[in-house]
């Protein structure tokens, strides 16, 4: 089939050459380097590969899977093979989510450039697609998959196979009727536009048609007033409904005459419901909408544990890729475990294990490059230093020289602060968290003394030209790395002063008790807790933990027993106001869904303001025993229908999913619960449930909702199809689509579920 994107796709010489195909070396490891023939398909949207030109080809990736393309010298693997394979002929394809990078080496620099430039053009094109273009692309991908003999048309037999792949169980006679109706050329096959008509017939949304007709007097259109009624009554848009109705008609009504007359057709109504405006996630929570001028300890901070690992904790690979992925997904606190390395260069790895090692300077350079690509707000380098005094000096040099102006090495105004600075004040800054020899007060006093000494020296220089000439001939004495050389002669502390001096607002201290912290610690001192210790403190002294986190930062990390890099539920730590709840971000699953759900809001900037009752030192809130429901709410969710649900295992051509929807609520312990619908047999394409679930929530400000679609399986705990997690405070009421994500957090477009959300103040059954 001629791609549905044809005519809109960019056309240039690079893409034409990519469609002819090229032989390149695929590199998986130092020992696995094999020649493969790569070719961009005629649809311009998928790349296939074969062992040689003319060989049996199979899909490698879709352009929509690609995040970016990097040059060869940016690849750790290709750099390690630089003597064997020319770096300038190499490039790396980076995919969304946790899929491994694809390293390729072309036969010449020119061929590498053709693929790098061509792929980037296509990636930029896909990124800029609108809703209709994304749907066309999805259909195009399916057509490619279903058109087995690649002749650009589909027979009824191919269509039947495709229906099974698309999760549609349909009476053969009815399917043939739809096929014939779409085959306007009467060729016995479906081509491009005919296939689109066939798809439209398959996806007719009767439940949306009924809703449309409930508000439309003539069943053909919604007038401006009818649409305003719908937005007020059902979508709870309130006073802004009139202005919003005009905006939405202008945005989603496909016909110009409809726009002029301010009316919305059924197609426009469906477009609105499927859009960001019709999404369950409130679009006003997507950009930065919170106050970013409060002290750091008033925010939840997106944090990563053992960031250098891309696998397990015992034998996994250490890689700068771990830092790139963490920072690009919005992490603002990354961890670095540093040990003595060969040739005086510190190395990063999980000590006393078989995990691989990377130079500390490479980690610092990677942080410098990627720290602020996703968010401008401060990055915290959590250092776990196991180095000798000499290699700590080298660390201090690398941090100072590589990070330069990005590194915060003294208080913002040179004065002693009374509270932690805000994310806003620290924009574009990298902060070091680690052990410190002295207090901040002593550091600032010494800085004052040094400034006085310097000005005295300047006065002496002016009076004695010979002294000035002597100092100019010894410039190394003034470098930041040489300060310790003088002190070294006196005594050698375990911690190197030049590294200690780089720790300003985040001094690591041991935790003894909340009373001890109150009496002996300062606001810029921070303690770390294992998940086990933090949980027991919440049970024993939940309110004290809340108060502690209102003035000091806490970091929680996964138990050392999690050698498989599994995760714990971050919610119970957030309930106590813990800010840096560090996760193994390389491991997908329920816990990371919750984590990503919270940090999806506020511009995904990595900082989310804690609820006000977790920000007061005198707070009476206890996460285990919350006070009687002062803001309790009841939530009614009608789960209506599903659309284009994928199979988890595409190899099972004949099997069709039996979907059910589970709604899980995470919050304080009494609010944490789940309910599910019954399952719909053999229909992943357009299942209908029409079931209502009811929840009572005591502390909505802390609650997150996770919608999970499962494939019913009586033998197991059901198979995962897709999920979406949203903070209660970011949820829109009314008729909403929930656009599903994969286990990896990647869009499963156009897979969605259609729901109706209603929130009522108080608890159902309350006399008040």
From TrEMBL:
Q: GO molecular function of the protein, one example?
A: phosphatidylinositol-4,5-bisphosphate phospholipase C activity
Q: Which residues form the C2 domain?
A: 615-742
Q: Which GO terms describe its biological process?
A: intracellular signal transduction; lipid catabolic process
Q: Which InterPro entries match?
A: C2_dom, C2_domain_sf, EF-hand-dom_pair, EF_Hand_1_Ca_BS, EF_hand_dom, PH-like_dom_sf, PH_domain, PI-PLC_fam
Q: Enumerate the SMART domains for this protein.
A: C2, EFh, PH, PLCXc, PLCYc
Question: What Pfam families does the annotation carry?
Answer: C2, EF-hand_5, EF-hand_like, PH, PI-PLC-X, PI-PLC-Y
The UniProt record lists the EC number as 3.1.4.11
Classify the source by domain of life.
Eukaryota
Which stretches make up the PH domain?
A: 16-124
Cofactors: Ca(2+)
Cite the residue spans of the region called Disordered: 441-486
Q: Which UniProt keywords apply?
A: Calcium, Cytoplasm, Endoplasmic reticulum, Hydrolase, Lipid degradation, Lipid metabolism, Membrane, Metal-binding, Nucleus, Repeat, Transducer
UniProt domain PI-PLC Y-box: residue ranges:
499-615
Q: Where is the EF-hand domain?
A: 134-169, 170-205
Q: How does it sit in the membrane?
A: Peripheral membrane protein
Write down the chemical reaction(s) this protein catalyses: a 1,2-diacyl-sn-glycero-3-phospho-(1D-myo-inositol) + H2O = 1D-myo-inositol 1-phosphate + a 1,2-diacyl-sn-glycerol + H(+); a 1,2-diacyl-sn-glycero-3-phospho-(1D-myo-inositol-4,5-bisphosphate) + H2O = 1D-myo-inositol 1,4,5-trisphosphate + a 1,2-diacyl-sn-glycerol + H(+)
- Biased amino acid composition, Acidic residues: 442-455
Subcellular location per the Swiss-Prot or TrEMBL entry: Cytoplasm; Endoplasmic reticulum; Membrane; Nucleus
Q: Does the keyword Methyltransferase apply?
A: no
> What is any one of the record's Gene Ontology cellular component terms?
nucleus
Q: What does this protein do?
A: Hydrolyzes the phosphatidylinositol 4,5-bisphosphate (PIP2) to generate 2 second messenger molecules diacylglycerol (DAG) and inositol 1,4,5-trisphosphate (IP3). DAG mediates the activation of protein kinase C (PKC), while IP3 releases Ca(2+) from intracellular stores. Required for acrosome reaction in sperm during fertilization, probably by acting as an important enzyme for intracellular Ca(2+) mobilization in the zona pellucida-induced acrosome reaction. May play a role in cell growth. Modulates the liver regeneration in cooperation with nuclear PKC.
Self-association and partners: Interacts with GRIP1. Interacts (via GBA motif) with guanine nucleotide-binding protein G(i) alpha subunit GNAI3 (inactive GDP-bound form); low-affinity interaction.
Q: What is this protein called?
A: Phosphoinositide phospholipase C
* Originating species: Leptonychotes weddellii
